[in-house]
Specification:
Distance between the termini: 63 Å
Number of strands: 19
CATH superfamily: Mitochondrial biogenesis AIM24
Number of helices: 5
Oligomer: single chain
Shape: globular
CATH topology: Double-stranded beta-helix
């Protein structure tokens, strides 16, 4: 294996975290801000890119970091290296309610494609790169744009899904139609495209957007019930409508409903 071979355990239900066991001189690379806790004896170092081409000189590091810029991520990632003479633990937390998905890249022929903000952490040696869409429609209307992330290598990687996770195994020719924001990731054998919903009423009044994604097998796909964009949109909508004050959501009573509920703030 070119990637470090790590052991792990995932804790929790709605707000999960993954605890990774590192042998001496083993390391894990993670997105900035995902760190939760670690044992003494682990060294933390900020690096350009994903650390998979650190022996290629400054230009190699710069190219790796530049790829991450295209996905909207930070130029830097953090490596956690066990310099202790025994096993040490380091943990990384979910950014919002959902599930952490372990991805063994050896089971997906060394490559897995995921949405841009799904990656959480991986064994050092796993390459976090970019996957360009070759289809204009998918790039313009697919929700993820022309660029998605790809995880390559032979180690373990961990991605995050919002809400409840669905894992679907598609046979050859099987098609799954999905909201464009609900895709977590899929293996490289899956054909990903977008399709127009159609119908004037659906387009104007459906409230589901103009397009949905089509995933055609064979291959495994992961679907999330609560994309972060949907969660953020609901929070923003509630905050803007409330004007900083509580209101009876969906109630014709409005402020009177709050008064009856014991909230007399108008």
């Amino acid at each position: 294996m070119t990637a470090h071979e790590i052991d792990y355990h995932i804790y929790g239900e709605e707000m999960q975290y993954v605890e990774i066991e590192l042998d001496p001189q083993e390391a894990v690379v993670a997105e900035a801000g995902s760190f939760m806790m670690m044992d003494d004896g682990i060294q933390m170092q900020t690096i350009f890119g994903d650390g998979s081409n650190q022996n290629e000189g400054f230009m190699g590091k710069l190219f790796s970091a530049g790829k991450r810029m295209l996905t909207g991520e930070s130029l830097f990632m953090t490596v956690f290296l066990n310099q202790y003479h025994g096993k040490r633990m380091v943990s990384f937390a979910s950014p919002y309610p959902g599930k952490i998905v372990p991805i063994d890249l050896r089971q997906y022929k060394g490559k897995f494609i995921c949405q841009k903000d799904a990656f959480l952490c991986a064994a050092k040696g796993v390459t976090v790169g970019i996957e360009f869409s070759k289809k204009l429609g998918r790039g313009l209307f697919g929700g993820e744009g022309f660029i998605m992330q790809k995880l390559e290598g032979d180690g373990m990687a961990f991605v995050h899904a919002g809400g409840t996770l669905a894992r679907k195994v598609l046979g050859p020719g099987d098609v799954l139609k999905v909201d464009t924001g609900c895709i977590v990731g899929f293996e490289q054998t899956v054909d990903y495209d977008i399709e127009f919903i159609g119908g004037i009423k659906n387009t104007i009044f459906g409230g589901e957007g103009l397009f949905y994604a089509t995933l055609k097998g064979p291959g495994t796909v992961y679907i999330q019930s609560l994309p972060f964009s949907r969660l953020a949109g609901r929070i923003y909508s509630a905050a803007s409508q409330g004007g900083g004050q509580q209101r009876g959501e969906g109630s014709i009573l409005g402020g009177l409903g709050n008064l009856l509920d014991g909230d007399n703030r108008f």
